[in-house]
Specification:
This protein has 11 helices and no strands. The protein is mainly α.
Length: 145
Amino acid sequence: MREKRDYDDIPGTYVFDGQKSRQGYHLNMFCMSLNKAENRDVFRESEADYLGKYPMTEAQRQAVLARDWLGMLRLGGNIYYTFKLAIFDGLTMQDAGAGMSGNGMTVDDFRQMMLSGGRSIEGNRSKAEWAEYYARPENKDEANG
């Protein structure tokens, strides 16, 4: 287990560090394989069979099949590499960005957020800040859903 990093406390941030690189190596190599037309053709024929060529974890495999963009980042996917899969699906970076938001954001919502300067820092400084907020009695219902 690696030592804790300052950026581990930033909500919604998945820094592609050495640990993530090792964790996502096979996932990222699969994504890079889509650079070749012949690999895209084989993947298109049977996604599950093609993924069998890469010793990914079952969670990584399921994230690819479900096109769980945020899940792929959490499981060691590099945004540059996972975008190869988004391009395969005919998606734009804005489509993938909305999918990676983790909050059900639409592409139009994502586009507007970016045009407005990006995600607000309010309430997004640290996971500890979130824990404090949800620990207050008046906010407990929000935490459950």
